[in-house]
Amino acid sequence: PRRSRGPGPAGAMGPELEPLLQAWSYFRRRKFGQCSELCSQLLKRPPAEQVAASTLQAFYVILIQAAWSLKTRALTEMVYVDEIDIDEEGIAEMMLDENAIAQVARPGTSLKLPGTSQGGGPSPAVRPVTQSGRPITGFVRPSTQSGRPSTMEQAIKTPRTGLTARPITSASGRYGRLGTASMITNPDGPFINLSRLNLAKYAQKPKLAKALFEYIFHHENDVKNALDLAALATEHAQFKDWWWKVQIGKCYYRLGLYREAEKQFKSALKQQDMVDTILYLAKVYLRLDQPVTALNVFKQGLDRFPGEVTLICGIARIYEEMNNISLAAEHYKDVLKQDNTHVEAIACIGSNHFYSDQPEMALRFYRRLLQMGVHNCQLFNNLGLCCFYAQQYDMTLSSFERALFLAENEEETADVWYNLGHVAVGIGDLNLAYQCFKLTLVNNNDYAEAYNNLAVLEMQKGHIEQARALLQTASSLAPHLYEPHFNFAILSEKVGDLQRSYTAAQKSEEAFPGHVDTQQLIQQLKEHFAML
């Protein structure tokens, strides 16, 4: 048997790593700042000191190129944003969009008119909708945060919150801020002076060109120079490198040239089947408001990549945005068959069960998220609501207390107080409900639903004028909600103001065409007008 060796001398340390290898180690461990600093020291070191280790000039050139490339990649990773998931439409993209396909889309073929889908999903009476008309999803994504308002006035009025569709921040502006914020990563100024680069020279060196492209595209946000480099590089590769075609497509997409981007992605797919390219192509069709074509792209991708989670999830998202909730739930279940820890699928199925009057089933899915380590305000908020509607009252208040403790901003706190107000209404404590809705408005003064519910409580107290003022505020903040319009119509009809009642009832019917009470009220008012 071999004897074990004893410990070495106290304080003994191994040999120091060669600087370039140390920088690569930092990069692998995602310590990009330290990696960048070490590469900067290597690049600033005088040539004589570098070449002293070896008489070969070629070695020095390779070393400098490696350090330059590694620093470029480190700076890129510090500000890298995945282009597939980030897609936020701003005012510039919505109101100045020249890619008009069809002004009046057929039912079930447009994301602009999600209510036209025959998906059999819950009505707005059960499941709230955002300003864009889409049902509230169980998972916040960039696409659910974007809307398509019908007028410029409505777009500008939209609140700057994550509670509704928010078109106020232009995507081009966000990319611009990302580019300027990246200067923080290099206080001495830009690492590469793009105006002095000879792009044709770098295009002939594929390994350097790819690192340089990602630096220009992500770190400097200079799409024009990135596109020029990609065009020269793909020409040097004799148009046989699919990677460059994808990058050209990304540049075209960022510039708003969606049809050109579509051609590049299709050409790349002919050369090399890649899941990312399929996702980019579907993203182009969604921006062109062609969800059916995007669904076909995803389904063709699943034929070549069976069981790919991102493709199934993409199909589920489209169905959900088109208000086809039943098909969306089926595909989210397919996602869980492939990946049973997929947070988005679990959250969306839980949300679907909750709005389908199955709080016990929803509770099981939210508890699953809790067991997986998700620990945030939104989850405990949902748990509190599920416990209340499932009649597990002992857990309701403790869940809401935890949600309040974990709230990171005033909007989240407002959500919790609003739901506590609903719980108070459910147990019949209207004074507590009144206080909760007031606290909601203290935290978020743009909470239209809280204004509406406060107005209902004021109506029960007989305070007509306060109720009218609150309802007018709610309807101006959220014209997409039917409740404030309908309540205002009922209130106006009771006090004899039939004209205002009729106008508000028409707005309510426009927001929710299938609301029976609104239709009955309009019919009564028409009979009144006929008698006059």
Automatic annotation (TrEMBL):
<feature type="repeat" description="TPR">
    <location>
        <begin position="448"/>
        <end position="481"/>
    </location>
</feature>
<dbReference type="GO" id="GO:0036064">
    <property type="term" value="C:ciliary basal body"/>
</dbReference>
<dbReference type="Pfam" id="PF13181">
    <property type="entry name" value="TPR_8"/>
</dbReference>
<dbReference type="InterPro" id="IPR019734">
    <property type="entry name" value="TPR_rpt"/>
</dbReference>
<feature type="region of interest" description="Disordered">
    <location>
        <begin position="114"/>
        <end position="154"/>
    </location>
</feature>
<dbReference type="InterPro" id="IPR011990">
    <property type="entry name" value="TPR-like_helical_dom_sf"/>
</dbReference>
<dbReference type="InterPro" id="IPR028796">
    <property type="entry name" value="BBS8"/>
</dbReference>
<keyword id="KW-0802">TPR repeat</keyword>
<dbReference type="GO" id="GO:0034464">
    <property type="term" value="C:BBSome"/>
</dbReference>
<dbReference type="GO" id="GO:0097730">
    <property type="term" value="C:non-motile cilium"/>
</dbReference>
<dbReference type="GO" id="GO:1905515">
    <property type="term" value="P:non-motile cilium assembly"/>
</dbReference>
<protein>
    <submittedName>
        <fullName>TTC8 protein</fullName>
    </submittedName>
</protein>
<feature type="compositionally biased region" description="Polar residues">
    <location>
        <begin position="142"/>
        <end position="153"/>
    </location>
</feature>
